[in-house]
Predict the 3D structure of the following.
Amino acid sequence: MSPETPPPADHGPEEHSWKDDRFGPEAAAAIDAALATLVDPDHALRVLDLTKRGGAGFAAFLLLSDTDAAAYDLDEKFSAAYVDAWEDFSHFRRDVLEGLGWLDAVNDVMKAQGIPEDHLTWNHAAIDIQIFDTYDLVRLDGWWHVFNK
């Protein structure tokens, strides 16, 4: 095929979804930007393979300030760091509180002491500060991607 010859009729546009519903235009731009910085074709192939396996989470990982797209152990670093993605930050906050056992502990105290549900509220601002101190978070295509620091 030459520049003057159009592509065959059975050749449609390239598919960039990477089989991940969370992979949108911001994720694609992150991958493209990382690929543009790589000189070694083997590094580029590794990034493409990790994109295929890690989807939008890997694209978000590339946006972390300390991520080196040419690192030989990029896949291990991504696997060790990536937690998951949440569409709503409040759901992630709830999962953190649940994981710490705080939701059950507070509910137990409230039941034991007869405290009505509307009498205690969580200080979300303080909790969010702790979350951002504990995790690296990247907002990408409407999703919060969470990484262990």
Remarks:
- The two ends are 48 Å apart (CA to CA).
- The chain has a mean pLDDT of 89.
- Strands lie at 82-86, 135-140, 143-148.
- Residues 25-148 form one domain.
